[in-house]
Amino acid sequence: MAMVHTGGPRDGIELHVQRLPPPAGHPAAATAVLLHGLLTDSLASYYFTVAPGLAAAGLDVVMYDHRGHGRSRRPATGYQLESFVTDLERLLDRLEITGPVHLVGNCFGGTVAFEYAIRHPERVAGLVAIEAKPATASWATEIDGIFRRMVGELIEHEAESMAWITAHRGAHTARLARSAARLVRATTIARDVPGSRTRGAEQVRSVRCPVLAVYGAESELAGAGEWLESLLPGARSVVLPGQGHSVLAEAPGPLLDLLLWWLLDPGGTPPSPVPGAGLGRGPVAAGADVR
């Protein structure tokens, strides 16, 4: 564990970083930077799921808590998407990671990854978007709706909401929800993220690296994979049946198989994560439905 200060004395921030190296005596096959989602998420969602398996397979794995999340510092303002991308830029510089990296982003972390790949195409070897899409105008509208619902349901009626979450989702989820509510109350994140600069289709097309997009079949984002494939020649999408938005938490085994294939052996036979999984473009494992 380490706290890494990025930027200068006025515009920098301390980020909580965890790094899992490959087994001793084995040079890293590549560097994978894992980016988590907003509000209730942190690097722990990777640390306790796919990160150990990626490191054991020979990858140098870097995880960190976004500003305002987990153990990273919580400034009162500065939560536009551009700030999260700048944090990633500066963190890689401070860690002296100079070669192209693989970005793995869950939800908002995937949006950060897309924006970084647009800004720094030469520094990205590949991108995995888990239940995520670029910062388009429709993305901004959707995330604004999420924040509005959160303010209306979780903050304005906090006691009732917490009681329901505790009863139906458990004490751990309730603790995460309370932390998210504190973040929204104490900072400008609810205004800043939806107000971030958005990208048009032509700018999304500037992403040059290979892209793997993974979605749950029951998620509202399930159709985004086909849209990305239509824009990006190097994009492939996977839809996991029976899964919703929480793919990382609820299907870590199939997701790890996909990540190991994409990051270490993309020319090999892709895995069939679960019966009926859809895999777009290229060779398809037996039992998978082509999308």
TrEMBL record:
Pfam families per UniProt: Abhydrolase_1
Superkingdom: Bacteria
Region (Disordered): 272-291
Xref: InterPro entries: AB_hydrolase_1 (IPR000073), AB_hydrolase_fold (IPR029058), Carboxylesterase_BioH (IPR050228)
Sequence ranges assigned to domain AB hydrolase-1 in this UniProt record: 33-149
PANTHER family for the chain: HYDROLASE ALPHA/BETA FOLD FAMILY, PEROXISOMAL MEMBRANE PROTEIN LPX1
Protein name: Alpha/beta hydrolase
